[in-house]
Amino acid sequence: MNATDPATNSCESGKSAADLPDYEAELMAFHRAFGRELRRAVRAIPINPGDRVLDVPCGDGFYTVALARRLYPFGRVTAADLSAAYLETARRAVARHPAAAVVDFATADAYRLPFDDDTFDLVWCAQSLISLDNPVVALNEMRRVTRPGGAVAVMEDDEFHRVMMNWPVALELDLQRAVAEAARVKYGSRAGLSPARGLRRDMIDAGLSPAWKQTVAADRQAPFDPAVRAYLRIRLRQTRDFVAAYLSADQLAVLDRAIDPGDEQSLLRRPDAELTCLTTLFLARK
Ligand SMILES: C[S@@+](CC[C@H](N)C(=O)[O-])C[C@H]1O[C@@H](n2cnc3c(N)ncnc32)[C@H](O)[C@@H]1O
């Protein structure tokens, strides 16, 4: 992910964007655009008052807050990340929500979690396996720190089904092929941007027992609200840059027109535009 957008890269938390990864702008825009559905997904996971939950990696703390609000007032959330800048961002996000369970913060490598065996009732891991070269090792660590009978919940994407729009079929097919090729070159696999596709297998390989899977779908229609427009601008630009080398000049010209916010026929401005954003929540038991 390599989106940067000066319009959205500033943040109400006052964090230093320079210390955060390039995908920060997209991630924050994603949380803002689809927060309602993402929070609903958090409400679907089985946790009880008094539970102890680990959010790893916590990133900007969006899910830490959602989990802490669910556990209020008795539970406890540990927000862990390798990035000091993200931990600071998460700390500020939590501070803005007083009606939340106790949250503590930990600098932690997902491959070597600094927690005892069987510590947590639930481990939550959202949209991070793409950042972890070896998801099975990380999932195995999550399993280790989960108590017997507890759960590991993982939210992940499949690039091919992530943002679906009612754009021309020919453009969609060209894009899918180009995404697969770009992923093969960058990640060594055409499924390199589709961690959700292998997640069930990865969970089993990590010694977990998959219990259920839920698709989190967010539908939006034109006119898109500012948060969705901001997300789409970043997202479409990022996709364009990722696949540009794998499209012909004609295909790229069609794509550029479809995503140009200055063009009335672009997907950002057409009155008939619609989108569905999909992500997947997997729950496995220890
Ligand atoms: C795409 S972000 C997702 C963050 C958060 N779960 C969310 O959905 O907003 C990926 C996160 O993984 C963290 N990360 C990358 N490698 C890590 C590692 N080895 N151990 C712990 N965190 C790591 C990054 O700092 C970043 O916060």
Written description of the protein model:
- Strands 1, 2, 3, 4, 5, 6, 7 and 8 form an eight-stranded mixed sheet that branches.
- This protein has nine helices and eight strands.
- By secondary structure, it is of the alpha/beta class.
- The longest helix has 21 residues.
- Helix 2 runs parallel beside helix 3.
- The protein has one domain: Rossmann fold, CATH 3.40.50.150.
- S-adenosylmethionine binds next to helix 3.
Question: Can you tag this structure with a few keywords?
Answer:
alpha/beta, disordered N terminus, binds S-adenosylmethionine, 286 residues, Rossmann fold
Summarize the structure.
The protein is α/β, with parallel strands linked by helices.
Task: Give the topology.
Blueprint: H1 6-9, H2 24-44, E1 52-55, H3 62-71, E2 76-81, H4 84-95, E3 102-107, E4 120-126, H5 135-145, E5 146-156, E6 163-165, H6 169-187, H7 199-205, E7 209-221, H8 226-243, H9 249-259, E8 274-285
Parallel strand pairs: 1-2, 1-4, 2-3, 4-5
Antiparallel strand pairs: 5-8, 6-8, 7-8
The protein binds S-adenosylmethionine.
The site of S-adenosylmethionine has 21 residues, from helix 3.
